[in-house]
C-alpha cells in the first residue's frame, strides 16, 4: 500500500495513526460551517499553533510549537485544502519535511439548531524519523488531536450559549416592547 505525495511515494508498512471523532453542537449548520471554514480561527485552536499565514484560497502556513519529552521545537507546516463542499465537507493535507497528515471535517444537519461534526485525521512520519511513528508519534498524535477536538467543541459550545443568550435577550426585549 502506498500514498502518493508530490514526487515521493510513502510506503505505509504499519497501521498509520488515525483518529475519528463524532460530536454534536447546538448550532445551525451555517454557523458551524462559518467557523470550521475559517482556517485562521479554527487553526489557532490547534495545540501549540502560534500563527497562520494564508497564502491563497487553498494554501496556508502554520507555525506550530510542540514538545516530545525534553525536545521542543517550532515548525512550519504547509496546509492545503483539497476539497470544499459548502455546508458539508472540508478536506485537507498538512505537510512538513518529516510529517504528512490528511483530514476531513464532515457536517450533518441534525435539526435546524443542531449539527453533527465528524472529524477524521491521519498522519504519517516520513524521512529519518519514520521509525518513530509507532513508538512516539502515535501517542503524541492522539493527544494533540483530542486536545484540538476539545478546543473546537468548547469554542462551538460557547458560541451556542452566546446565541441562546442573544435569542433570550431579544425575546425579552420584544415582550417588553409589546
In short:
The protein is an alpha+beta fold and 178 residues long. It is built from 3 helices and 9 strands.
Pick out its properties.
two-stranded antiparallel ribbon; 9 strands; 178 residues; Alpha-D-Glucose-1,6-Bisphosphate, Chain A, domain 4; 45% strand; disordered N terminus; alpha+beta
- Total of DSSP H or I helical runs spanning 4+ residues: 3
Mean pLDDT: 83
Low-confidence spans: pLDDT under 50, at least 5 residues?
1-14
H/E element sequence:
EEEHHEEEEEEH
- What kind of assembly state do the chains in view correspond to? single chain
Number of strands: 9
Widest β-sheet, arrangement of strands: 3-9-8-7-6-5-4
Radius of gyration: 19 Å
Q: Could you say how many structural domains there are in total?
A: 1
Q: Please name the fourth-level CATH homologous superfamily.
A: START domain
